[in-house]
Amino acid sequence: MHKNRNLTFSEVSSQADEGFGSRAAHRGAAFGDIDNDGRIDIVVNCLNDKPELLMNRAGGGRNWTLHLVATRSNRDGLGARVPFTSATGIQHNHATTSVGYGSSSDKRVHFGLGGDSKVDKIVEFAIAEGPRQ
To answer: Which of 13, 66, 90, 131 would you call most buried, defined as having the most Cβ atoms within 10 angstroms of its Cβ?
Structure first.
């Protein structure tokens, strides 16, 4: 499905590779930018078969990725809410690896900039730290 600007969706599976529409017993999905091109790719696990890598080849768009690093415990900054502003407004995302069933996904925080060419400001945020050791 493709999200349209008017808050509706369009069916686009006919434009995807042949493997995308094949029936299989899938039991896990992990999301991340495998080739560091700014687009989120998917790895799915198939029962009794090898994993499938679905590379996102959708065109255009500006994407931005943050790799959070904390200084004490919770070194990956998991749980942090990250707000930023650009010309079209403010966006929020958070650092998490738990977005797919039975899988862990990319810990980096991903933002789609749409028509904006840059991020204006990352609003100050705090990373949840565990107890001091």
So the answer is: 66
